[in-house]
Design goal:
The complex is a heterodimer of chains A (398) and B (498). Chain A has 15 helices and two strands. With 398 residues, chain A is mainly α. The two termini of chain A are 27 Å apart. The longest helix of chain B is centred in the middle third of the chain and has 42 residues. Chain B has a six-stranded antiparallel sheet, with no helix packed on it. Chain B has a five-stranded antiparallel sheet with strand order 17-16-12-13-18, with no helix packed on it. The radius of gyration of chain B is 28 Å and the shape is elongated. The two termini of chain B are 41 Å apart. The chains are: A mainly alpha (398), B alpha+beta (498). Chains A and B meet through helix 4, strand 1, helix 7 and helix 8 of A and helix 1, strand 4, helix 2 and helix 3 of B.
């Protein structure tokens, strides 16, 4: 007799009779932890590296921040590579059954994605080196070689999300809370990494301009909504936003405790300690709104309509909270260590060439309105993409 | 990946460059490196700064102490004036040569365009002292990608593209199958469709990436071009009056020519050189008009084709040389005045390798030198003797200095106007010396008295030393100008540089 036919309950609770042995025992495979760790090192290394460059300036191949990023790439590469090779050439039928095939190799999909990310990171290195020689040491985050690096790092993170999602979708009820927590942690780190990538568009003086809101409209929704769709938590987006907020606040308050001096000139600001990145954007509020939206039965989470509504809600709440908060950050009340409006990188000509406590001009009213409308449009598009991603992640098994 | 408010900074910098710093030309023509001879307190130092090809980039610095009492040298970079000039980074300790303990080398990052300052701190048996050397920072070229790197990138990105498309196919085909389930034909079809769609997306991404790269390359080329000198527009009016202006709409718009610093007494030093023989040479000082143009009455000169080189210094201390050419009719009226000097000279001679020039009044000018090589730091040393063969005792300051030297390659791809302190313009040197921490600094031939004012000793010794380095091989003419008994003399030397 067919086991599934005689035990439909068993099929529903645990439909996959050939679940990997590790999941039966409740343990998460080591390479899943490695990818989660790689994602963490990438993000932390990125934050540290940016702070290093605006505090000290001069760096070498071997700075601690760079070492963290290399470690991320190595961890991702080794973990993914081992998993793929072990699945392909190993003798575990369960592993093969839970794998996909690429170019004759078999392995978890998340590992292939993460391995791709590691190779992309490696590709960016010689390119970035030549870019400096050709166009000078690039002093911005978003350059073409850096974007390839960021894409590689993003794919390592995405690979981790896919891997954890696949395990979560196959896991027993007892195993799901642990996997869910890991998923939200990785999602939070992805959100943190997204905030780093849009850092140049999110200083306080941009908070009354479409540029700021366009950036936040594109950077966060895919991860917030995509991961929320897989999570069994009631507050997944809030959790991820809280992780990002907590980490940025920790950086804001802890980094300035460490001495640092600029080693590159010209120097426009007197620097004696590490300069942190800015106060986190108020992502927690639109994240709460998204979670509330997801909980409501009036909206079928995952379809196009939900994506449109989510986009509008996300941006509306964001503008409503961030706009007045921008006024606060510009004011003298925020010029303290807690809110961080006093920090400028050594090469930032604030108070020399420009007034940092003034919002940048946003052009004509028509340009402003058009820009903000475009930001809302981006939010809708990216929320819909997040919904599509979430729908897919909910069904990933391998 | 440093300043985060970069877009705004780039905008501000470009505007500032146009308004205040001015589109900065190559310092002189084809001679961007800095050669400097000065004193940090009791220590005489010869400084060479080999500026990088691209900015930001690394400049190589060599500092040679004249005496052995310098034990340590540290260097740092700041702006010459304005924001960024007040604070300095942690200085780098220069490496002392084990072979020649008087030679120190250092590598410094030039992070910005414009007028920068190399701060030197010397420590030795006579204590600590500081000196500042102005450095004009600008990019000179764009680097092409080596073939091997291009091939490697193509291979890697092609692999990444194929990998991405394949992974998307696998994700569509198999990722949602329960473990152990077989791939159906429908799933394979979906996988193939996904591969095609993702392939199109990958191609679109590559297109976008190349467009972005092209845009950045154009931006870089634009910055390099922005820092090339605009052409000099020259017209002759009323027979012997020369009118000059910069032929650039941005310069006119921002009034660049109305914001210049006087450089050893004049807003512009103009050089007329008849080509191809270099047999007529004039060093003139046009007057500045309210509309930003310069004009002057021509000295007596023969008709011919003249290259015109105008040296000016903008208000940030950045030097640049505007170049033009004009066919001048002969002129017999003597419009020269004040510090103007020049005359007729033998034509440039490819076979001569001069070391002595005897002037019309019998004055002998001796240039002691070994065979010259390009890209080497040198000291050009000249001695002036009276007709009796004795060291001349009646030399006077000429525009505040003992001597001025103009160096021109036969094709005028190199032109430099240097002084005993070196190749940096005197106006910039004064700005550098006037900063806090540079007290006790002096240039060769001049000393700082108490505050910031440089004073020229009244007596000029008949020996001149000037640091310089020829940027490339070729035939050069050197014009040495000094003042003797109330008259400005010009000696010429032709030399081959290997």
């Amino acid at each position: 007799m067919d086991t599934a036919a005689h035990h439909p309950g068993l099929v529903q609770v645990r439909p996959f009779a050939t679940t990997v042995a590790a999941e039966r025992s409740g343990s998460i495979p080591w390479f899943v932890w490695c990818l989660a760790a790689a994602t963490t090192f990438d993000a932390f290394g990125g934050y540290w590296d940016i702070s290093w460059h605006i505090s000290i300036g001069r760096d070498t191949f071997w700075t601690p921040a760079h070492m963290m990023v290399y470690l991320a790439g190595i961890l991702a590469g080794v973990a993914s590579g081992y998993s793929i090779l072990n699945t392909t050439f190993g003798s575990s039928p369960q592993a093969k059954d839970s794998s996909v095939s690429v170019w004759g190799f078999r392995g978890p999909l998340g590992c292939f994605v993460a391995a791709w990310g590691g190779i992309a990171m490696l590709t960016s290195a010689p390119f970035d080196n030549w870019w400096h020689a050709a166009y000078g040491l690039d002093v911005k985050i978003v350059s073409l070689p850096h974007s390839i690096l960021a894409l590689g790092e993003a794919m390592i993170s995405f690979g981790a999300v896919v891997l954890v999602s696949a395990h979560l979708n196959r896991a027993s009820l007892e195993e799901r809370p642990k996997l869910n927590r890991l998923l939200l942690y990785v999602g939070g780190i992805v959100t943190f990494g997204s905030a780093l990538f849009i850092l140049e568009s999110t200083p306080m003086e941009f908070m009354h301009s479409p540029r700021f809101y366009g950036a936040v409209a594109r950077a966060f929704p895919i991860a917030l909504i995509g991961v929320s769709s897989v999570s069994s938590s009631r507050w997944p987006a809030t959790t991820m936003a809280a992780i990002y907020t907590g980490l940025f606040l920790a950086g804001l308050w802890i980094f300035p405790l460490f001495p640092a001096e600029p080693k590159l000139g010209p120097v426009y600001q007197p620097i004696s300690h590490m300069v942190p990145l800015w106060f986190p954007v108020l992502l927690i509020f639109p994240a709460i709104a998204l979670d509330l939206l997801r909980q409501t039965s009036a909206l079928r989470w995952g379809n196009l309509k939900a994506g449109v509504v989510a986009g509008i809600v996300y941006m509306t709440v964001f503008v409503a909270v961030q706009w007045p908060f921008g006024d606060f950050l510009i004011s003298s009340a925020a010029r303290n260590r807690f809110f961080g409006s006093i920090y400028f990188g050594y090469s930032d000509p604030a108070n020399t060439f420009y007034n940092p406590y003034e919002f940048i001009a946003h052009g004509t009213t028509a340009a402003f309105v058009g820009g903000m409308a475009l930001a809302f449009g981006w939010a809708i598009v990216f929320c819909c993409l997040g919904m599509a991603l979430g729908n897919w992640l909910k069904t990933v098994q391998r | 990946m440093a300043p985060l408010r970069l877009n705004r900074e780039v905008q501000l910098f470009v505007i500032a460059a146009l308004l205040c710093l001015a589109p900065c030309a190559s310092a002189h023509v084809g001679s961007p490196d800095v050669f400097y001879d000065g004193n940090a307190g009791p220590y005489r130092l010869f400084v060479t700064v080999n500026v990088p090809q691209v900015i930001p980039g690394i400049a190589e610095v060599q500092i040679r102490a004249a005496s052995g009492d310098v034990k340590r040298i540290a260097t740092s970079v700041s702006r010459l004036t304005g924001g960024g000039s007040r604070y300095a980074p942690v200085p780098d300790v220069a490496i002392r040569s084990t072979v020649d303990p008087r030679l120190f080398t250092s590598s410094i990052w030039l992070m910005e365009y414009g007028s920068l300052r190399l701060q030197i701190k010397a420590s030795g048996t006579q204590g600590d002292a500081e000196m500042s050397v102005p450095v004009a920072s600008f990019a000179r070229r764009n680097l092409a990608m080596p073939r091997w790197l291009g091939a490697l990138l193509i291979a890697l990105t092609a692999g990444l593209a194929i990998g991405a498309v394949s992974i998307v196919g696998a994700a569509t085909r198999e990722a949602r199958l329960s473990p152990g389930a077989q791939v159906t034909e429908a799933a394979r079809r979906s996988g193939r469709v996904a591969i095609v769609i993702s392939g199109v997306l990958v191609v679109a991404i590559f297109y976008f990436a190349f467009a972005w790269w092209t845009f950045d390359a154009r931006q870089s080329a634009m910055m390099t071009k922005l820092f090339r000198p605009p052409p000099l527009s020259i017209t002759v009016e009323s027979g012997n009056r020369l009118k000059l202006k910069a032929a650039d709409s941005q310069w006119s718009k921002y009034g660049v020519m109305n914001k210049l610093l006087p450089d050893h007494g004049h807003l512009m030093h103009l050089f007329l050189i008849r080509t191809p023989g270099f047999d007529r040479f004039w060093h003139l000082h046009p007057a500045h008009a309210a509309d930003g143009t310069f004009d002057l009455n021509l000295p007596p000169l023969d008709a011919g084709h003249y290259t015109v080189l105008a040296d000016i210094v903008d208000e940030s201390g950045f030097p640049w040389t505007l170049v033009g050419a004009i066919d001048l009719p002969g002129n017999t009226e003597n419009g020269a005045s004040g510090d103007d000097s020049g005359g007729s000279f033998p034509a440039l001679n490819t076979t001569r390798n001069d070391s002595v020039d005897v002037l019309e009044d019998g004055t002998r000018v001796i240039w002691q030198h070994d065979p010259l090589a390009a890209n080497h730091s040198l000291i050009l040393h000249f001695t002036v003797e009276d007709p009796g063969g004795h060291p001349a005792a009646d030399l006077e300051p000429y525009m505040g200095m003992g001597a001025h030297v103009e160096i021109a390659r036969s094709d005028l791809s190199v032109f430099a106007h240097i002084h005993p302190s070196g190749s940096a313009p005197m106006a910039a040197v004064m700005l550098a010396a006037n900063t806090e921490g540079s007290r006790g600094q002096s240039m060769a031939g001049m000393t700082m008295q108490g505050g910031s004012k440089m004073e020229m000793p009244s007596k000029v010794e008949p020996d001149f030393s000037m640091p310089y380095g020829f940027p490339k091989p070729g035939l050069y003419r050197i014009f040495l100008q000094f003042k003797r008994a109330g008259k400005v003399e010009t000696a010429v030397f032709d030399t081959q540089v290997r």
